[in-house]
Amino acid sequence: MIRQSFAILCCIFALPAAAATADAGTIKSVRGQVTVERAGKSVAVQVGDPVFEGDRVRVRGDGSVGISLRDETLISLGPNSNLVIDAYAYNPTTREGAVETSILKGTLRYVTGLIGRLNPAAIKVKTPTATVGIRGTDFIVEVPDEEK
Amino acid sequence: MRRNSLYAVLLAAALLAGCAGPPERIVLLPEENGATSALVVRARDKEVVLDQPYTVARVGDKRIETETTDAAAVATRYRDVMQALPLRARSYTLNFEFGKTQLTRESRTLLDRILSEMQELPAPEMIIIGHTDAIGSDEINDKLSLDRANSVLKLIQAKGIVLRDVSVVGRGEREPLVPTRPGVPEPRNRRVEIRVK
User: Fold this and answer.
1) Which of A17, A29, B111, B115 has the least CB density, counted as fewest CB within 10 Å?
2) Cα distance from B28 to chain A (closest Cα, Å)?
3) Do residue A132 and residue B26 have CB atoms under 8 angstroms apart?
4) What is the ipTM of this complex?
5) Cβ–Cβ contacts within 10 Å for residue B100, how many?
6) Is residue B9 very low, low, confident or very high in pLDDT (cuts 50, 70, 90)?
7) Under 8 Å between Cβ of A101 and A60
């Protein structure tokens, strides 16, 4: 069973062309100044904009952003936050995939979605010093700003 | 000599780590449906398991400490992320007249209600998911379930409604409402689920 799901996961990752065109999720709420850095460019985002694997989402000052990923993973970022979507893959038919994010600064609330329900090991959340492994979950991560 | 310089780098790294400010905090929140959940927090060679809601792991430069918080403290300290979290997806089930591609009367009414409720969501998305019973191969059922989902999309389009963000998915027989053995007919599993977020 494990071997089988591994083989299917490999198939997903072996199709980078298909993965690159699909978005990872949608911005659902924006308060204050929220930008996404993609391919070296930083753009302000609005409700309804897509996010992609590799994006760096920044909340500057006293703002916040809410994001729903395609597998129904829910993410919100608080003031002065910086999150990178390191990897995102999702097969809606089998609900297999992987979600890897790094919170470099600020506050993150994270509710795991359909990928995590099937395979919690496919969800990874990193901070500058820790990794969080998940067993079906809603949680908050706070990373203080070292420059303060 | 080489060995000495390696130690110097390690020491510098350790000193940098020692300069770190306040600890990172990881807080386990309760599941909405009361189910149990847990987090495993790892930092360097340390590991802590959080398995009770409102337990906090404080990841410092030398150790991971745990403490307890509560709903009121979380609502205050983390007000922004609590408010900014998108709504959870809502799920609805549409049934078909027996052996037909036509929705039951109840399901037609439900579909109209879903479409009007969607308009109140920010950047609404609809996912139409077809399901089959356990008769036939995966290949056939994957296609059949996708056809079933597409037939609901056509119904919506026939109403003249244009959804900006809609996707159709065929889940085949992977997610029966009523689990059966392979090859057993089960009309209740031949359905379309609509998820709205």
Assistant:
1) A17
2) 5
3) yes
4) 0.81
5) 8
6) very low
7) no
